[in-house]
Amino acid sequence: MREARPYSLEHFQRDAFGLVDDQMEFNERTLAAAVRQELAGLALSTLDSMGLLAIADALDNDLAEWKLQLVAEKTGGRKLHHHQIAQDRTADEVFILVMTETARLGKRESAISLACVKFGISRSTVFKLIRGASARHKRMQEVFDALGIHPSSPNNSEN
Q1: pLDDT the model gives residue 91
Q2: Closest C-alpha among 58, 69, 9, 62 to residue 38
Q3: How many Å apart are CA 159 and CA 151, to the nearest integer?
């Protein structure tokens, strides 16, 4: 048994063309054609017909005074560029702190605990940030290697 779904514009278009389960393009022009096709089969008042024709024209007529555009609902939130930069900067700071403190203290657990306290984050967040920063640094190193640049060298002009 098929799951009951709310009736949508796409369902309306499929019903108008008799293509309930078939693949079909869905855009402004195809929806306008479906509205016009359904309108031709209905006995509506002149005012109702004119209203539906105006909607169809707004969907697909480039000369219409008003334009209607189909916009799909966005899922998830987009990160703003400056938020991503701030998050990457924090991840880099955590990564550098953990690596330097691990080298200094010889114990990774102590370095992770220090990062938790300093940044006010959980252990799992420390590990997540380290993974992200480590992958980013690895990609950067691959680019530098491909370009023949060695940023860790004290004097890059010799390389």
Answers
A1: 92
A2: 9
A3: 10
What is this structure's pTM? 0.45
pLDDT at 1: 45
Please determine, for residue 35, whether its predicted confidence score (pLDDT) is greater than 90.
Answer: no
Please say whether the beta carbons of 117 and 97 come within 8 A.
no
Q: What is the pLDDT of residues 46-100, one digit of tens each?
A: 767 777 888 888 888 877 788 888 887 777 666 677 788 888 899 999 999 999 9
- Cα distance between residue 104 and residue 106, in whole Å: 6
Location of structure tokens 């924090």:
90
> DSSP labels for 20-70?
SSS----SHHHHHHHHHHHHHTS---HHHHHHHHHHHHHHH-TT-SS----
Question: Distance between CA atoms of 91 and 129, rounded to whole angstroms?
Answer: 5
**Radius of gyration over every alpha carbon of the chain, rounded to an integer in angstroms:** 29
Instruction: Strands of 51-136 (E only): list them.
Output: none
137: tokens are 């640094």
